Automatic annotation (TrEMBL):
Organism whose genome encodes this protein: Acetobacterium malicum
Residue span, 4Fe-4S ferredoxin-type domain: 195-224, 225-252
Any Pfam family hit: Fer4
Keywords assigned: 4Fe-4S, Iron, Iron-sulfur, Metal-binding
InterPro entries the UniProt entry points to: 4Fe4S_Fe-S-bd, 4Fe4S_Fe_S_CS, EFR1-like, Fe-S_Ferredoxin, Flavodoxin_CS, Flavodoxin_dom, Flavoprotein-like_sf
Name under which the protein is recorded: 4Fe-4S dicluster domain-containing protein
Length: 276
């Protein structure tokens, strides 16, 4: 039986959903699978586990044709391959992702891992803000319909991993062009957007949920008010999962009908699964 580990970072649940479905789809192929949110791990935990692993999977959401900073930091400290270990990279996207998974896979290849797959999966958008207007997220049957379309592609990836079939997405001139253009602007976009975080004090009930779920500890509480530091990665977890929609990104976002918050993949999703 092959031993496989899946490490993922998920802002609002999409990558968690793909990682979880992939773990389930690998089991009939005689893969013993462990799955971890990188937010729950220490470097020594990763090093110890990898010493006995045959295949590695890394998953993350697309941020301007690259990975979010928590995953990039994780990769930076990721141990070198132990022998001829194989690896799969997958990225979840809303629209176009360029050569994201391919670019990240090359970082792992430099550490000695044999890249088998670099794949992208279309999931529901969660970025719809007054200054950055994409299509609004849907929290109804349209989200479930998208999940139903994505699941067979996840099952296909499990089959490719099991058979060793190589599948690389984005390795073409258009993918490289789009990827390069998006990566050039993503850092500035994150800085500009995150500077607009505000708290509607009339809505805020000081429940502490945003402090607890923030992956970078960017939200602080002082004198019965919330404050934002400068370590935001724009995962939108606090914005999307505040129970009273008290966290705003631009004044217009107070209108929850015009700027609905994405509640995650499917009914009953609980954001706590991302941090446990």
């Amino acid at each position: 039986m092959k031993k496989t580990v899946i490490y993922y970072f998920s802002g609002t649940g999409n990558t968690w959903w793909v990682a979880t479905r992939l773990a389930e789809a690998l089991q009939p192929h005689h893969h013993q699978v462990s799955i971890h949110s990188i937010e729950t791990l220490m470097l020594e935990d990763v090093s110890a586990e990898l010493s006995d692993i045959d295949h590695v999977v890394l998953g993350f959401p697309v941020y301007g044709s690259t990975a979010p900073r928590p995953m990039l930091d994780f990769i930076h400290t990721f141990p070198a391959a132990n022998g001829r270990q194989t690896i799969t990279i997958f990225a979840t996207q809303a629209l176009a992702s360029g050569d994201t998974a391919l670019m990240i896979s090359r970082m792992l290849a430099q550490k000695g891992y044999l890249v088998q797959q670099a794949r992208h999966f279309r999931m529901m958008n969660n970025l719809h803000l007054p200054r950055f207007k994409f299509y609004p997220p849907k929290n109804d049957y349209r989200s479930e319909r998208l999940l139903a379309r994505t699941l067979p592609r996840v099952v296909d990836l499990a089959r490719e991993i099991a058979t060793g079939k190589k599948h690389i997405t984005g390795n073409n001139p258009l993918g490289h062009l789009l990827g390069g253009l998006q990566r050039r602007h993503i850092d500035a976009l994150i800085i500009k957007a995150s500077a607009e975080f505000r708290v509607d004090q009339k809505r805020c009930i000081l429940c502490g949920k945003c402090l607890r779920i923030c992956p970078t500890g960017n939200i602080r509480r002082a004198q019965e008010q919330l404050h934002f530091a400068k370590d935001c990665v724009l995962c939108l977890r606090c914005y999307s999962h505040c129970p009273t929609a008290a966290i705003l990104l631009g004044e217009g976002s107070a209108d929850v009908h015009k700027y609905p918050r994405y509640k995650g993949p499917g009914p009953g999703f609980n954001v706590d699964v991302l941090i446990k």
